[in-house]
TrEMBL record:
Signal peptide start-end: 1-27
Pfam family, one: PBP_like_2
Keyword Signal set for record: yes
Protein name, as recorded: Substrate-binding domain-containing protein
Domain PBP intervals: 31-209
Keyword annotations: Signal
Amino acid sequence: MNKKKTGLAFAVAALAVVTVGGGLATADPAGPPQYRQLSGVGSDTTQDVMNGLADVVTVNGQKVIGSYDATGSASITTKNPATDPNCTLARPNGSGAGRAALLNSLQAGNGCLDFSRSSSLNLGAASPGLTYVPFAVDAVSYAITPGSSIPRKLTLADLKAIYHCDPNYVGTGPNYDVTVYLPQAGSGTRSFWQSQMGITEADVVAGIYPCVKDKKGTAPVQEHDGRVLDDKSIVPFSIAQYQAQSSQTIADLRGRAILGTIDGLSPTVLNSGFGVKRDVYNVIPTSKVGTSPWSDVFVGPNSGICKQAAVINTYGFATNPNCGDTTKQTP
């Protein structure tokens, strides 16, 4: 790899810092009402845009989306304890954990969770069945620091070589020249990036790629938190999250992180043209596709969420031409 530093050449269109419902969207639902009809957990990538949507999407004039952040307090309470006393649960962190928590709630029939957020598509068998409803488009690039020896422009082939621990790119072990980070286990960004890099979760867990780490010391690497980086490390980063953090629309956790260019394509705010892109989803029970309020909020191009293009764009995501589609269902 040519480690000569090159100028950072990506276009950053300005995000307007706008308020949603009179102020920036808060983390967990605070009311009114505090407890919502549709409680959801999961993806770190989409938590902020869903918080913003929760402030503006209503059914019969009332807010109905209760979106709980991936990190924060150890536990969350998703329904009114006076009527649903058993809806305090450990806070799920990431798409995989959100899906698992939703399935647990559906299997228990306790009504504690009604949807989950996911930044990756997982159509593996689920009981009861789940429907992945797309609502926006994100893209993912790599993040480094300004002083990094890693070039600011790479090809996808270069990135794959880095994540395969090619010694021409990362040096030789046990002390590699580059620390190659993945987000925490269960992260949708982790699974998406692995698919783009041509590596598998099983091989990562088995240590087939010894330069790849998902912890810094003993602390798990939280997705879209650039403070994990030093001048000898690399990590995937959602472009939507980066731009929303940059504009102060959400909390700025970038640290010294800057985004790299892949295959000559610059990471931009509305990133539907970027090469490494993905749909992001809300996951709902398939049995509820035609049932209000799920159908009002999530389903179809005229659903509450799909009509909020301005909010979706404010959080750095591109609108999705398939918003509200319900064809992606688990067996």
